[in-house]
Structure prediction request, 595 residues.
Amino acid sequence: MDDHPSAPAVETVALLKTFGATRAVDGLDLVVPRGGVYGLLGPNGAGKTTTVRLLASLLRPDGGHARVLGHDVVADAAAVRRDIALTGQFASVDTDLTGAENLVLQARLLGHSRRSARARADELLNAFGLGDAAGRLVGTYSGGMQRRLDVAASLVRTPRLLFLDEPTTGLDPRSRRQVWDVVRELVDRGSTVLLTTQYLDEADQLADLIGVVARGRMVATGSPDTLKRSIGGDVLEVRLTDPADAVRAAQALAGFVDAADPSLSPRVEDGSTVLSVPLTRPVRQILDVLDRADVEPAGFDVRRPSLDEVFLALTDEGVSA
Amino acid sequence: MTATIPAPDVSVLTDPGTEGPPVTALSAVRAFAWRSLLKLRHTPEQAADAILIPFIFTVLFTYIFGGALSGSPESYLQYLLPGTLVMAILLMTVYGGLSLNTDVSRGVLERFRSLPVWQAAHVVGTLLGDVGRYVVAAALVVVLGLLLGWRPEGGPSGVVVGIGLALVFAYALSWVWATVGLLARSPQAVSMLSFLIQFPLTFVSNAFVDPGTMPGWLQGWVAVNPVSLLVTAERGLFAGTADLGDVAWVLGASAAVVAVFVPLTLHLYRRRSS
Prediction:
């Protein structure tokens, strides 16, 4: 049963958690709508994991409020635990048990009968490519296998909200893609996923919305595209084979596009010079200016800032503020 | 890892049996006890060192000191065996604490804590499952004793009741190690501390020799050492001359340990995260 179907998946107001003198989470306001993947991005020590622990009712906040699927994480922790699953930063599996036993235990704790627990475990093991290793002690599994078992354990019961704390750290590309597939599929079936990650491409690939955290605070939120646009517009990269052309082109264009850097940040790539022209004017007009300056470019490319640049710009700001 | 990992069959993502009633505390405790017993089955070697020590002590002490202390190895064995039996069981009590410590460091504790079950079930069940270890240890020492010539006058019922009493005390004591397990930084630290405490506790008792020849200040401690109380009660039960007062002391000491360390452990458990 879903007690508060209209409540957001997560809603925090001025959430605070201190460890001694450190304010790990320092007045965090976070709203995660239902459905979709929300990516919590931030450098190490930004408070991502602490936030997840607070939301999963593993830690008590020192201030502020947090609701998960409409339930207060302190007053109604039991209701929160009924609807969530957590995959922590390290594969939290029992290395002294077999893969099958790990999942059977999980299923038994979630109310499956002995028989249906075993069936559910087999089903998940096969789905995650662990069928052959079901009877082996998890201590003998590779890191990737342990991580897949860990994710499988979180799916023994379909969670309304799944927390994935850096789920693909240390995974080979194939296992990583497999985790991504599972996340997408889960979201298609109506669950919400809150993902923390340091991999920007992961957030870019998976997240519908991103929150950037630095020093325990939210420094920006938005879709990946909005965030990319927010730190400066698109850039037209002009490739020139003659370095003399590059100087002339920069002289002709800098004033026209109001470039911050009058040399248009030339860089040399494969023997040609590449100029970065801010797209403050239509591309056609820029080309006209080049034409009049008698410059014949070898190629063009329109580039949007990567999420990495967004991340660096935002978190540097957050740290120096 | 093999290169042929199939794409996950995503149909399993939806669990058909999702919305069942919440799991009762009893079922949760049982599930964790089952886990504890599985670990004993998969890695019996983990318990091997703890069982070897009392074995070696039983054999060596009987034949080396037996003649000198009691006139003959056989007669000393009657005195010694309840002591080594208690030692064997008590050395096992640290496993629950070790297991909890490992669960903390591997993040397993967080997974369990995020489940909709009674929070204490993880600790209660783990420690109850470990009673299986104590039974195995007790059975091994009893069999060894019988082979060497130990003849308990109290008969099978005396032995069974005696072991039962030792199990009660051991379960209570295991809560002390659970507390240590939640505080310690590593499993090695837990083992180390357990040896440092359990050895003196076992030796400075009446487990191996009559304390009558010890200096007075030591006798004072031996008299109140809970291990002495337990060994005295065991001797009575095995010999068929049980003193209810001795048994009551052991039960009282167990209750006192439980009263302090159960709330302490559960408090730490709720706060602990890796």
The first helix of chain B runs from residue 25 to 42. Confidence is low (pLDDT under 50) at residues 1-5 of chain B.
